[in-house]
Write a structure and sequence with these properties.
The protein is an alpha+beta fold and 185 residues long. It contains 5 helices and 7 strands. Helices cover 31% and strands 27% of the residues. Strands 1, 2, 3, 4, 5, 6 and 7 form a 7-stranded antiparallel β-sheet that branches. Helix 1 packs across helix 3.
Length: 185
């Protein structure tokens, strides 16, 4: 878990990375960070919203890189490289909100009875197909555990029941926070 200062620093890193990319002007933000945050390894997702609408969401699952670097790289990708959306423009920049999801470890599961809606995110993988849905997705869509699992399979490009047919499934927890207090959990 992070404290409020760490959260503010990570959000500032994401905001500055987005601003620098969108405007093409390098930012001089060099946050003072405690050693534990500066050296912390972790996976994360960065979501960019414009007036409450999703404009990009990109993440990195493995906990093998410094979290601060993951946040900055994912922030740039979320505002510019999510194939579902056009890149964020400079005119939108003042109206975007950033949300971070810091991922906990992946734990293997065998079915929906091991999923707690609002607490767990899911990863489904079979061969080279993989899909991930963050914990907040099931809550936002009011899905039950079976629907959440089926939708994660579909996100991977697999049949909804792929979890019964040999796909590997993991759950994870995420610490989710953002600039817009209405979306913080």
């Amino acid at each position: 878990m992070t404290n409020q200062n760490d959260r503010a620093t990570l959000l500032k890193i994401a905001r500055e990375a987005v601003a620098a990319h969108v405007t093409g002007v390098a930012q001089a933000f060099r946050p003072a960070m405690p050693d534990d945050l500066a050296s912390r390894l972790g996976g994360a997702f960065v979501s960019v919203h414009h007036h409450g609408d999703l404009r990009g969401c990109i993440g990195y699952i493995a906990a093998d890189r410094r979290l601060t670097e993951v946040i900055a790289q994912c922030a740039v990708s979320a505002c510019s490289a999510d194939p579902r959306f056009r890149p964020v423009s400079e005119s939108e920049l003042a109206d975007v909100d950033i949300e971070l999801s810091l991922l906990g470890p992946l734990l293997p599961i065998s079915g929906p009875d091991e999923i707690e809606i609002g607490r767990h995110g899911l990863v489904v993988e079979l061969d080279r197909s993989r899909g991930l849905l963050l914990p907040q997705v099931a809550t936002e869509w009011k899905w039950d555990a079976l629907t959440f699992l089926a939708q994660t399979c579909r996100k991977a490009g697999l049949p909804a029941d792929a979890w019964k047919l040999g796909a590997s499934v993991w759950k994870f927890e995420a610490e989710v926070f953002g600039e817009n207090a209405k979306r913080e959990t």
